[in-house]
Write a structure and sequence with these properties.
With 243 residues, this protein is of the alpha/beta class. It has eight helices and seven strands; from the N terminus they run βαβαβαβαβααβααβ. InterPro entries: NAD(P)-bd_dom_sf (IPR036291), Sc_DH/Rdtase_CS (IPR020904), SDR (IPR050259), SDR_fam (IPR002347).
Amino acid sequence: MNSKTVLITGASKGIGKAIALRFAREGFRIAITCKSSKSELLRTKAEIESMGSPCLAYVGDMGSYPAVAELFQLINKTLGQVHVLVNNAGISHIGLFTETDINTWNTIINSNLTSVYNCCSQAVPDMVRSKEGKIINISSVWGICGASCEVAYSASKGGMNAFTKALAKELAPSKIQVNAIACGAIDTSMNSFLSRADRESLTEEIPANRLGKTEEVAEFVWQLASGNDYLNGQVIPLDGAWV
């Protein structure tokens, strides 16, 4: 059993779930969260525990500072210090900017960007004290180049990318690495709204001629969490040469 703890936000399904199961294979103590999909989160928890890893499942909004503070109190009490933080929680929104009201904007920014601040603010002090830690942010290629009809989402991921680079510079002297994975089109329920024709058209745009797999993102996260300590402050696309 690994003595280290990983926190993966937004882990009831999709990319987050795949990441959690990847760390379970390595025997990590695991904390997972979701905002509302409690039944799916508990199924993920059961899968993790069946692999022999202790798991804490927490239902709450990572965009809420009090909720994140409560989460970390529970983690510290049951699993110990968070050594690896994977900020995966987030939502997408497609629509014209002129039809994006302030409530939608705030919801997206809170879910995708403020959540990263909240979790890092809780995890970083212990990482600094122990002089070790990995923070991996799950971003998007739209945070690099922007997407029409996804202004709020693109802005939130662009903010995450800048946050990644800036925080890495602050924490590098404490032997903490902060990196981001800028995902392209990954085959998850987030893309389930696409019609068959739209999906085929999207696939044709991607030089790799397919959507990415959640397991591929999970493996990349594991490589960043367990690999080269000199790799720091990077936003790395994982998009099949799409963008």
